[in-house]
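Ticket closed. Logging final result for AraC family transcriptional regulator.
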Amino acid sequence: MTNHERRPGGARTAARLVWHYLELVIAAALGMMLLDPLWVSVLKVGRFDVYILLMAAGMAAGVAIWMLVRRHTWPRIAEMGSAVFLPFPVLLVPYWFGVLPAALVSLIGHVIPLVLMAAAMVWRRAEYADPRHRFRFRGRWFRGTAIVLAALLLPGAVSAVNTVGKFGDLYTARADTGADTGADTGADTGADTGADTVAARPAPKAHDPAKPTVALLAGGGGTNVADLLGPYEVLAGTGRVNTYVVSSGARLVPLTGGLDLVPDLTFGELARLLSDRNDTLDAVMVPALDDPSPAELGSITRWLREQSAAGALTMSVCNGARTLAASGLLDGRTATSHWWRMAGLRDDFRDVGWVTGVRYVDEGNLITTAGVLSGIDGALRVLERLADPDAAQEAARRVHWRHYSPGAPARISESRLQPPDVVVALNASYHPGPSSIGVRVADGIGELELASAFISYTEHAMVGRTVALGDGPFRSRHGLTFVPRSTVAAAAEGLDRLLVPGLDAARGQAVDAVAGLRPVYLHAEEEFAFDPVLRDIARTYDVQTARWTAKTLEYPVIDVELSGSAWPWPATIVPLVLALLGAAAAVVAGLAFRRIRTRH
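Final structure:
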């Protein structure tokens, strides 16, 4: 009998090769995605070249594991793993010599392995098309996979919707304004070109040319409330500094969590004021800005370069370092920022020497601070340089900042993601409430008191949404003008909690209960404004959420007593229940399908 050996070739062989190739591409992608959090978060890999090699190793590992499942030999596994991994170290050689940028290394490095994998399979098509290496997917595996996918689909969908909604709400512009967020050209037309329907103007401020002048930047697309208001209160509270919040042109700026600010001046108005008073700008502070438009970013970075060239001391707070780096002023300098943002900053701005573990880095005419509340230390350093150490010491005492380190930056812990930090993902995805939080605001409130209420529950704890409630525009303790988004009466039916920040408000106890909601006065005694807020989060939600909030604020809470539930158990139970419901639905659907099929 003649043995007709099947030769490689033909449509069936081509189909097997294509299918096998797609499987290996998916395996490489899964290896990269599953191991990427380990490199970035756990091992805290910040260097691009090290990260890209580890990522390539993850891709090669995914391919190797799947080839083992397919029962390939070790020589073929090594060959295919090399095809996936080796292009990356080869491409890093021109990267190290400055010939190839990081983005191009990443792009080319993802394309070449795909080509080499295909070439290896065509070269050894007899083996890769061999039916012995086929992965036989049994019926019970299909049913099990379907149940697992159904169990993951429902909690995954809920997580995606809730997380996108909460993060998307952080800097949402109010509906009743058409404020101009473009760049100010400096031309004085004598009229406000913004189309604001909210009639609010900044409070006039007396300017003393004998005092140093500091401008704090606000972006029209959104500005981090604590990055801005913390340093502002430190400086303005001394009475020894002309302090202005400036913007490139915006007449109403959304701050974190539903609070809107009217900037004091535009760039052009500030220039005219200083010119009229024969004065100069002494310092500029750059908080984290939320995704400024290209036009606004260009206007801001150009203005920063102009002020620095004119001799102004420039300071960034937290992720404001990204804006400062985009201006080019940090090139060749040492800088710091928030630990969470550091990997991205190192990738995007390779000419900057990024460091961690310190409150701020003083580089002469440039100061960069670590995360959020580190801006207070940065502002105190600016006070030391523009006024004197005594002024800084008094300012730290006034805001009850216990971590002031005179003359030098304090060391801080080099934070990284740890297993308990999954609490923020649970809160963002599944927290059942109370999630809609009204914040009653009024004249005379401290800027740090405001910031503590609007950033802690939203951007950091992720337990809910806040909205500013009041009877009209109000002014803070040191002269900033804000516009609430609603009144208490109009919003009460949709609220779960009603918070009242401010020590003066707590002493007056003037807010009545509305729609069954009793006001919660956050600041009942003289202390740092964030302490009672963290205690409220621990008591109302859970202690781990409060600790995560403090960690992302870069605020040590060793001496702050936090009591409450240890963990967000409701938010933990919700995805488990959703997964059981999804799995049950898949089982029921499978049984129903089998019954219908047997009947026919």
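The radius of gyration is 29 Å. No further action required.
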